[in-house]
Specification:
Bound molecules: pyridoxal-5'-phosphate
Distance between the termini: 53 Å
Number of helices: 14
Strand content: 5-15%
Shape: globular
Radius of gyration: 22 Å
Length: 398
């Protein structure tokens, strides 16, 4: 086979500012951590890295759960690990589907033999406790699945009032926090979340490739009571946990450098303080919102239901959203997401997650968007940069 080049240029993607739905920007210390010398995956030093990671994940998930670890694969594998361990063929499972990621959960339930009950959400709105109660009246599911921040729509699902409704009906609560953990409060123990997973590359600002998750005692009992083995060898939590917490039996070769990076990203979150980080995300969202409003652009979601971490902004009539994104990438190295699912071709998805939730990112994004929109022939009402700057001056944050 001939190669498509005679020689290959040195790897150099250039500068990027990542403000899409993930991955997010990484702190220089996280890049540095990835370059540390490789150890074996059973080396005592690396076992210490795993122990630190577990402790730091408990801090971020706000849990004391014994089984807290990270799957060596992306957020979707975290989702599938939870589903294939909890769900046996024939088990009834209710999934609240408000967008692409709720739908992904539903597809996984069916592939693993669960009897799926789909509760469809209304566009741009979270599920209410009444909707869930009504759906649960006619069935008795083992698990109810919810997405905390639905990245395809930008809706934040309030959890505190819905979880007791699910528990009254005897079901386990499974929550996707891939686009929320680290950016907005997720209180696993205080809220009673039974099973929770996330991804390394969104609000945690580590590289993609790891999926932290945590399960409480009720969830572990349900898994222990299975009549059939988990239908995936790689994702069987009892095997994975023997590597994390038992006799450290070899299960797979852990991606050591990714774990270095995740550990460092979690140390950064701990140094800032989880709650300070949440306040930073909220403040940068407020400044961004003021800028978008001033520019005369519209969000997809009404203010009370918005996730501060991921914001779909509707493209004005007649503007090619993809052309704007290409300009932003070419002229500024700035990546925004395109619309996904129902918003395909209609919106930009702007992520304010982890290290990308910064004042300089917000100002760059608003200014660059304004220039790109003008270049594409769109009117811009007022300066988004001025409006956001006024918010920063008034609150003194970030
Ligand atoms: C990104 C995302 C996922 C999938 O994560 P991958 O790392 O892309 O596999 C799942 N759920 C939500 C809410 C997400 O934002």
């Amino acid at each position: 086979m001939p190669l498509h080049h005679d020689s290959f240029a040195p790897l150099d993607p250039g500068r990027r500012v990542l403000m899409g739905p993930g991955p997010s920007d990484m702190h220089p210390r996280v890049y540095q951590a990835m370059g540390a010398p490789l150890t074996g995956h059973l080396d005592p030093y690396f076992i210490g890295v795993m122990d630190d990671t577990k402790a730091l994940l408990r801090y971020v998930f706000q849990t004391e759960n014994a089984m807290t670890l990270a799957i060596s694969a992306t957020g979707s594998a975290g989702m599938e690990t939870c589903i294939c361990n909890l769900v046996e063929p024939g088990d009834e499972v209710l999934i609240c589907v408000g967008g692409v990621f709720g739908d992904r959960m539903a597809q996984m339930v069916e592939r693993h033999g669960g009897r799926l009950i789909r509760l469809e959400g209304e566009p741009g709105r979270p599920f209410t406790p009444e909707q869930v109660r009504h759906a649960l009246d006619g069935c008795r599911p083992k698990v109810v699945g919810l997405v905390h921040a639905e990245t395809s729509t930008g809706v934040l699902q309030p959890l505190e009032e819905i979880i007791p409704v699910i528990h009254e009906h005897g079901a386990l609560v499974l929550v996707d926090t891939v686009a929320s953990l680290g950016g907005t409060p997720v209180k696993v123990d205080a809220w009673g979340i039974d099973v929770c997973y996330t991804g390394s590359q969104k609000c945690l600002s580590a590289p993609p490739g790891l999926a932290p998750l945590t399960l409480n005692g009720r969830a572990l009992e349900a898994i222990a009571a299975r009549k059939t083995p988990v239908d995936s060898w790689y994702m069987d939590l009892s095997l994975i946990n023997a590597y994390w917490d038992g006799d450290r039996t070899y299960h797979h070769t852990a991606p050591v450098s990714l774990f270095y990076a995740l550990r460092e990203a979690l140390v950064l979150i701990h140094e800032e303080g989880l709650e300070n980080g949440h306040r930073r995300h909220a403040a940068n969202y407020e400044a961004f919102r003021a800028g978008i409003d001033a520019m005369g652009l519209a969000f997809f979601v009404d203010p009370p239901h918005r996730a501060p971490t991921i914001n779909p902004v509707l493209a004005p009539e007649g503007i090619d959203e993809a052309a704007v994104r290409s300009r932003l990438l070419k002229d500024y190295g700035l990546e925004l997401g395109g619309g996904l699912g129902a918003l395909k071709g209609k919106a930009w998805r702007v992520g304010l997650m982890g290290q990308s939730s910064q004042r300089d990112h917000v100002i760059l994004c608003l200014g660059a968007l304004e220039q790109a929109l003008r270049a594409e022939g769109s009117e811009v009402a007022e300066s988004g940069v001025s409006a956001a700057s006024a918010v920063y001056a008034g609150t003194g944050t970030a």
